[in-house]
Each structure stands twice: as C-alpha cells, then as structure tokens.
C-alpha cells in the first residue's frame, strides 16, 4: 500500500466508468430525437399532402397489398393505410400535447407551491395527490369518457389529470433542492419576495426536470390514447387514429397482418422515441449526473 | 461613540426546540464602523448574521431585539413583506460560497440589475448601466462583457465580486459578510477583502464581518467580537483584543494561530477538545470544559466585565491580569 498503482488511481478510475454511459446517453438522445422527428415530420407532411384522402372509402380497391399505388396497402374499406398513418401522427401528437399541457400547466405551479408552502398546506396537498395516484390513468379516462362523452380531448384531459401526481412529485423534489441552495438565500437577502423567487429562481432551475418528465408523460399519453381507441373510448371515427386502426385490423389479423403491423410499428416508434428522448435529456441535464460531463 | 448607530442587537436568544443556539447576544455597530465576529465553526456566528437580516429558518425561535437605523420596530418581529423591503436596501449580505450564491440560469449582469430594480425606481436600461458600473467598481475585468456571462463562466473570485456588487447595489447601511473569502485562494482573498473595505468605506456603511480567520479580522476590522458557544465572550478594539486577550478562549484562539511560536515549539498550539454540538455547551461558562483555568466558580455564568457591551469580557479568570500583578 506504500505506492499508488497508477492504473487504479483516482485519475484512472473514472475514465472507463464515466466514459461509456456518456456515449450511450448521447446515443439515446440522438435516436430519440430522430424517432420523434419522424413522427413530427409525418404529422406536418399530412397537413399539406397525403397520397389519398385517408377517410375516402373506395370499394373497388379493398384490402390491397403493398404496391406503388398504395404504399402500405388498403384496409377493408379501401382506405389508404399510408395516408391514415400520416394523419394518425397528427392525432398522436395532439393527444400528447393536450395531456402533457394539462398536466404541466397544473402540476408545475402546484409542485413549486408545494415546495415553498408551509407544512400545514403542503402535506395535505401531497396526500390528496396520492389519492389521485390510486386511480389507474386508463380507468380515469374511461370514466371521463363515460361521463362527458367519448372524444379525444376529454380522454386526454383525463390522462393529463392522471399524470399530475407524479409530475408534482418530480417538480416538488426538484424545487426543494433549489430552495435549499445559497442563491435562493442570497435572493431573499437581497429582498426578493417569495413569488419572485418561485418564478425567477425555482422555475428556471427545475425546467430541465420538467422537460424530462414531459417527454415521458408524452409517451404515456400516446400509449393511453392508442389503448383507449382500441377499446373504443378514444378518437371517434372517421378521424384516423393508430389505436383504432389496430382495433379494426383485429378481425383480419391472419388474412392481412400488415394492417396491424403498420399502426403497431408507428405507435412503437412514437413511444420509444419519446422515452429515449426523455432518457437522453435526463442524462444530459440531471444535476446528479453532472460529474459525467 | 460619536457615530450614528446603525445596528443594535440586544439580548438575542435563538433556540431550536429546547436547544439554545444563541444566548443573550448583545452588540451594536455604528455608521462606517467595521466589526469582526470571530469564533470556531458551530459557535453561532452565521446564525447571528442571518438574524440581523431576519433570515432565520422558520423552525427556530428568536427572542430579543434587532434594531436597524431607519427601520421602525424589531427586525425579529416584522413580517416577510416588510423584511423584503429592508433586505438588500438597508442591510445586505455576502455569503460564503461564491460557487452557489448566484442563480446558474441567469446572466450575472441581469442579477445585479434585478437587485437594483428591486429597491429603486428606474428603467431596465438604467439598471443595466448601473449594473455594469457596479461590476466595474468591484474590479471585474471587462465589466460590460462580464455582465453578459453566466455564473459558470466566471471563476470563484469573480463570482464573489459579483455577489459583492449585488450586495452593494443599493448602498446598504449595513453589509454583513459571512466568511466571504473562506472559499477563495489567498491571492484572490486579499483582492476581495480590499474591495469589501473600499465598498463600505465609499458608502460609509457599517460592516459586520463574520470569519474564523484572525488575520482577516486584523486587516479588515476596527472592532472585534469573539463568539463561543452562542455567546459573545469578549469584545473590544482589534488592537486591544489581539494584543491583550482577556478571555481564555480568545487567548487560545490567538495562540493557535501564532505561527512564530509554533516554529519554536515545532508543533502548533491547539485548544484542547472540540466545539460541542449546538445546545450541548456546559452550563455556566460555556468554555469551561476546554479551559485549563476552569474552577468551581466557572459553573456559574461569568458576568460581563467591562465599560460597555462593545468592550469587555465574560471570564472569572481572565488572562493578563495575573501576569500584570506578577511582573
């Protein structure tokens, strides 16, 4: 023990340990961004161009296989699957934005307030949210659809509400960390009021956490919409939705499996994309992993 | 004292639950005066500093009075709203850790400008210009460019100068510095100390300088308060206290930092034992369990001996008294 082995010294050790995850983190960010970009591109393209009207029923070209005319073939009503996938991307992004928007707009301020408020207010608030956590998101969405009528918007607001508790927890724990820093104390010493501290100091410093949580919530919302549409509580026809395409393909799973594969792959790409993006962003911005950079 | 009184702390008691953290802390600072507050870690220095800004944590109980010139009433009893008008304008603070004392998501120039806008009515543009001016005052190189930098782009010394600029932004009556140079290396330390002294001198502000570094107190301050176990055990002009310490704790501190003597004896003199955890100090004289001169008498609280709270000591067996009689 008299001499330090240079191979396992303090300088040598972090290299193999710290070097590898960084590269992987960069890769998941890249792949995630590409997959999400693909979905966004499909949605944007669908606004200006689709090969066919995705809702056009054409009895003469039912159940056609993949060809140059119909890239992904047609379904049992003769609708072009490729066009439906493109327009379905719109629905997918819409549900994600609504759900994450609802959750974020309510949960971010609530999380910061829960962190800054005195105990007698914060504790009951958190317990109340725990109560909400007890409801499975899908069940809540089905309940909402049953009460307020089935529409994408209603279902997604329900999904958004269901993801509030976990969102609040993340924001609150991040905020508590920020509030214990010296710059917050310094801000108070400079005469800053609590509201300004929440807005100017806490919010910008938890924003990376919010972005990560939002991308994960986005993936969950997409999956939930697909599940709801599959169950018949989500996007009503004729608006194209990947979930409903899956459901409609069910009866022809053995005769025309491609009808299930295309929307299935699309959902997988979108969910995987947002999850990888979230992971990548976390690896990049999580302050606990800062020493890797 | 002839000067106008800026800060008056009287009988300040701070406790958490049943643990006493500060006991009967009494002192005052006049306009333009620079006062050092010294003691080991855990002696209650920082807590005293926070109390002066009304920044004590929510779960502690404070009694006594903290009065600031130009502010009606006891600072300990004001609500957050009133306090937020006082903090940063009448009294400002520089913290120990320059690495964490600035918001990492905001440009330093904006942070200085905001400090100005909090207490002064002026346009954003004016505040920005004033901020650059302040950064120039604290000797930040290329202040206009530095104002656009984020905290992580600056060194520790540079950040501490930004923190100082924020503290001085509204010409406070009183500046509290809590170990502002402890985290800096020695060369930068000298520069920052110089800037602190110049900053308060130019504004004729009072300074409460908290540190455990005796040499820093000797260069910066005129008066010194020695704190141990949540009590002020000795106070007086720096010259006097450092040359002829009366309290045995002060004597121990000085001997522990006397490097010349250390070379002769080859080993640094230390105060035996360590600082007890907060609230676990002995009754009576708080220093008696580490003091080589302690007697039965020390089990009762030694009274303050001296002409005023600004000069005196609390010890039954003061140093230099027997020496005088003997010689």
TrEMBL record, chain A:
GO cellular component terms given for this protein: plasma membrane
Chief location: membrane
InterPro entries in alphabetical order: BP-dependent_transpt_permease (IPR050366), MetI-like (IPR000515), MetI-like_sf (IPR035906)
Domain ABC transmembrane type-1 residue range list: 89-278
Entry keyword set: Cell membrane, Membrane, Transmembrane, Transmembrane helix, Transport
Membrane topology of this protein: Multi-pass membrane protein
Keyword match Cytoplasm: no
Stored Gene3D superfamilies: MetI-like (1.10.3720.10)
Localization (cell): Cell membrane
GO biological process: transmembrane transport
Pfam families assigned to the protein according to its UniProt record, in alphabetical order: BPD_transp_1
TM annotation in the entry: 29-49, 93-116, 128-147, 153-171, 209-233, 253-278
The family this protein is said to belong to: Belongs to the binding-protein-dependent transport system permease family.
Protein name: Peptide ABC transporter permease
TrEMBL record, chain B:
One Pfam family hit: oligo_HPY
Gene Ontology biological-process annotations: peptide transport
Chief location: membrane
InterPro entries referenced in this protein's UniProt entry, alphabetically: AAA+_ATPase, ABC_Ni/Peptide_Import, ABC_transporter-like_ATP-bd, ABC_transporter-like_CS, Oligopep_ABC_C, P-loop_NTPase
Cell compartment(s), UniProt: Cell membrane
Cited PROSITE patterns: ABC_TRANSPORTER_1, ABC_TRANSPORTER_2
GO cellular component, one term: plasma membrane
PANTHER family, sorted: DIPEPTIDE TRANSPORT ATP-BINDING PROTEIN DPPD (PTHR43297:SF2), OLIGOPEPTIDE TRANSPORT ATP-BINDING PROTEIN APPD (PTHR43297)
Protein name: Peptide ABC transporter ATPase
Annotated source species: Intrasporangium chromatireducens Q5-1
Phylogenetic placement of the source organism: Bacteria, Bacillati, Actinomycetota, Actinomycetes, Micrococcales
């Amino acid at each position: 023990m008299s001499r330090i082995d240079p191979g396992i010294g303090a300088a040598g050790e972090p290299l193999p340990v710290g070097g590898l995850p960084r590269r992987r983190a960069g890769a998941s960010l890249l792949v995630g961004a590409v997959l999400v970009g693909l979905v966004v591109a499909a949605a944007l393209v669908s606004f200006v161009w689709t090969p066919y009207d995705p809702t056009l029923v054409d009895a003469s070209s039912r159940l056609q296989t993949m060809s140059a005319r119909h890239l992904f073939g047609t379904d049992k009503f003769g609708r072009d699957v490729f066009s439906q996938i493109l327009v379905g991307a719109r629905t997918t992004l819409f549900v994600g934005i609504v759900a994450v928007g609802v959750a974020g707009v309510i949960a971010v301020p609530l999380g910061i307030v829960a962190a800054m408020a005195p105990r007698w207010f914060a504790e009951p608030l958190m317990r109340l949210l725990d109560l909400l956590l007890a409801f499975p998101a899908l069940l809540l969405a089905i309940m909402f659809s049953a009460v307020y009528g089935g529409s994408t918007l209603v279902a997604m607001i329900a999904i958004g509400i269901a993801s509030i508790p976990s969102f609040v927890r993340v924001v609150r724990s991040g905020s508590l960390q920020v509030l214990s820093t010296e710059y917050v104390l310094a801000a108070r010493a400079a005469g800053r009021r609590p509201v300004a501290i929440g807005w100017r100091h806490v919010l910008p410093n938890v924003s990376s956490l919010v972005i990560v949580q939002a991308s994960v919530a986005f993936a969950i919302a997409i999956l939930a919409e697909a599940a709801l549409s599959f169950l018949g509580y989500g996007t009503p026809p004729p608006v194209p939705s990947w979930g409903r395409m899956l459901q409609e393909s069910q009866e022809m799973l053995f005769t025309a499996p491609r009808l299930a594969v295309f929307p299935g792959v699309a959902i997988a790409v979108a969910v995987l994309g947002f999850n990888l993006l979230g992971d990548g962003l976390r690896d990049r911005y999580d302050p606990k992993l800062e020493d890797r950079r | 004292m002839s000067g106008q009184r800026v800060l008056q702390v009287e009988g300040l008691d701070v406790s958490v639950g049943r643990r006493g953290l500060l006991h009967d802390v009494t002192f005052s600072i006049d306009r333009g005066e620079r006062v050092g507050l010294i003691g080991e870690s855990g002696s209650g220095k920082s807590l005293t500093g926070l109390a002066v800004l009304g920044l004590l944590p929510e779960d502690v109980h404070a009694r006594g009075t903290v009065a600031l010139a130009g502010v009606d009433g006891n600072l300990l009893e004001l609500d957050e709203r009133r306090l937020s008008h006082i903090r940063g304008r009448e009294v400002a603070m520089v913290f120990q850790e320059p690495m964490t004392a600035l918001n990492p998501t905001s440009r330093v120039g904006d942070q200085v400008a905001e400090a100005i806008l909090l207490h002064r009515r002026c346009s954003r543009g004016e505040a920005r210009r004033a901020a650059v001016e302040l950064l120039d005052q604290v000797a930040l190189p290329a202040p206009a460019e530095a104002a656009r930098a984020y905290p992580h782009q600056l060194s520790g010394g540079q950040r501490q100068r930004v923190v100082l600029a924020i503290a001085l932004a509204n010409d406070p009556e009183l500046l509290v510095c809590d170990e502002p140079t402890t985290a800096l290396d020695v060369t930068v330390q000298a520069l920052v100390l110089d800037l602190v002294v110049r900053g308060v001198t130019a504004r004729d502000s009072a300074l409460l300088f908290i540190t455990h570094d005796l040499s820093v107190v000797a260069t910066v301050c005129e008066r010194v308060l020695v704190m141990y176990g949540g009590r002020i055990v000795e106070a007086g002009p720096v010259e006097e206290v450092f040359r002829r310490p009366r309290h045995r704790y002060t004597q121990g501190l000085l001997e522990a930092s006397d490097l010349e003597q250390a070379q002769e004896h080859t080993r640094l003199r230390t105060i035996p034992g360590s600082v007890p955890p907060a609230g676990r100090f002995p009754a009576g004289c708080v220093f008696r369990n580490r003091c080589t001169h302690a007697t039965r008498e020390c089990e009762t609280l030694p009274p303050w001996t001296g002409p005023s709270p600004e000069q005196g000591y609390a010890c039954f067996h003061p140093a230099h008294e027997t020496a005088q009689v003997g010689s």
